[in-house]
Amino acid sequence: MAENKALVQSDSSAQSKQSIGSQPANQSPATSKGSRRSSGGITRMLKGMSTIHEKATPRSRHKQKSSHDPVNHPAKKPSPKKQNPDDPLGSKGGRVSKSYTRKEMLKVIEITKETMGKILSKTELEGTRFSFVANKHTVVRLKPDSVEFPDLTTVVKVVPGDTYDRALEMQDAGNASDHMPVCVLNFANAHTPGGGWLNGARAQEEQLCYRSTLIGALQPRLYPMEDLECLYSPNVIVYRKSADNGYSFMSADDKLHLNPSVSVISMAARKSPALTADKSTYIDQGQRQLMKDKMRLILRTAAVNNHRRLVLGALGCGAFRHPTQQVADCWKEVLGKVEFKGWFEQIQFVIRDGPYENNLAVFTKTLDGLNLG
């Protein structure tokens, strides 16, 4: 696959892919010829956008409660169903409090598409349709002598919960040293934008799509993603509450475009790598090294785009069947490298176990309290 993929919008443009450092896809060839921006330049290009602030306090969440609940739940609670062990919708080590019929999920999807279109039409100039491709050629090793090196102290936390909920809590808390939105990790599908969101699937990526404008930034032309490639979406508006809260709107319908923004890094793990008989270890150590290379790319992409607060997770654990302890160990080994010391102020691993999963306990034991200096 060619090294250059494009910064694109969610439109029908037929331009070829370029790299993360390239001009927007709607830029004329004459303007972009011979001109390449660094990843840091991308951040500076977007700093004028209303959702990527120069102020120390991030946009506060709209407190107006919506009367619009997009899911009409039946009065009678459905009888419990046996849940797939790989169903990611556990709740702090258990099941979510709400279950959804296929009809209800189709309604969620319908409202997502309708609402997202309205929000994107109001925020297009703020970069909500943009994603950039980051790969090993365009995002290089971090250097402490960089003018943007913040020299911060980081203590890793592992917490139960929901990716977006935790990110919004961090955003609301504010931060004097970080003017950027919180950056979250999306456990992406390498071949299909949003994974199975149009079919009502409920893994982590699909949940992010149901609740935000993320799918509007994941341009199909950027797929499939290669192994050492991820997508960086700088401005994703979160406008819905979680599945536990009925996917209700976070504000009045006409204020949804004013809800808080996060940035998203979409990275795909390899599916079903070969494991030992007890499922605890990669048979091919090259798969373990690939996972560490993916983690390095995630951290570098966040750092060069000036993010100091990250929400990460158990990448590949669950339906893709990567060994939990090995993945946690990989994160620990990568984060412990001198390269990443001083670049981040907050790193939180947010884990939500499904039935029969033990990811939270493993990640807590391995990573919680890890001091990166």
From TrEMBL:
InterPro entries: CHP02452, Macro_dom-like, PARG_cat_microbial. Residues 1-99 are annotated as: Disordered. Residues 7-41 have a biased composition (Polar residues). It comes from the Eukaryota. It holds the Pfam family PARG_cat_microb. Residues 147-240 form the Microbial-type PARG catalytic domain. NCBIfam families: TIGR02452 family protein (TIGR02452). This is Microbial-type PARG catalytic domain-containing protein. It comes from Penicillium cf. griseofulvum.
